Amino acid sequence: EDILLCMEDIAALEEMLKLEGALLASALLFAKMPEFGYLTACFLNVGAGIRASTTVLLPALTKAGKLKSALAVLDEEGIAVRGVLGEGTESEHSLYQISNAHSFGRTEEEVLCGVTQATLDLSNLELATRREAFTQNPQGERERFLSAARSLSQSESLSYGKAMQHLTTVMEGVSVGALTDGGVDLYELGLSLRPASLALRR
């Protein structure tokens, strides 16, 4: 199983897939049938033979109890939602992995477009839910955001769980305009806080 990571640029990912496919096809023979597409060890990947995924942060939908109904709609559209570490894992700090449930009967472009659209739909619903919560209780929400920012900037020591909890809250505050990111890439900061990333720095 080959894994490509793409942080933001979907167009760049599509170009990488085409290039990698051409390079592999020039060196390897693939099991493929005209009526079924690529034949893989896992029947869920038969067809286009591709698993595309994105990672989304959904704290507001989780807290508001709206996530279950949103995910039910995606399930009907052939989109799987898992924990951030993939199949069989639970959500970690409101992070979810969005991917195609299968690839049979779909082209690579259709798989990528389906996952991209699902990610955009969930992200828009999450943002609307954050704004609704902020509109209903601006003072309470602003204090929650500021408290998290203070904890991140002033604490001498934080567990990974606490640090991610505060960072997620700060991201919420930035997204509704209650805080500024101060020029810090918050997503990159989140990645750098992971235990494996910290271990590489030692």
The average pLDDT value, as a whole number, equals 79
* β-sheet strand percentage: 5-15%
The strands making up the biggest β-sheet line up spatially as 3-5-4
Q: What is the number of helices?
A: 8
Number of strands: 5
Order of helices and strands: HEEEHHEEHHHHH
Percent of residues in helices: 40-55%
Secondary-structure-derived class: mainly alpha
Q: What is the 3D form?
A: globular
Low-pLDDT segments, ≥5 res:
1-7
Radius of gyration: 20 Å
**Largest sheet data:** 3 strands, antiparallel
Please provide a written account of the structure.
The chain has 202 residues and is mainly α. It contains eight helices and five strands; from the N terminus they run αβββααββααααα. Helix 4 (108-136) packs across helix 5 (138-154) and helix 5 packs across helix 6. The longest helix is centred in the middle third of the chain and has 29 residues, at 108-136. The chain is globular. Mean pLDDT is 79; it is low at 1-7.
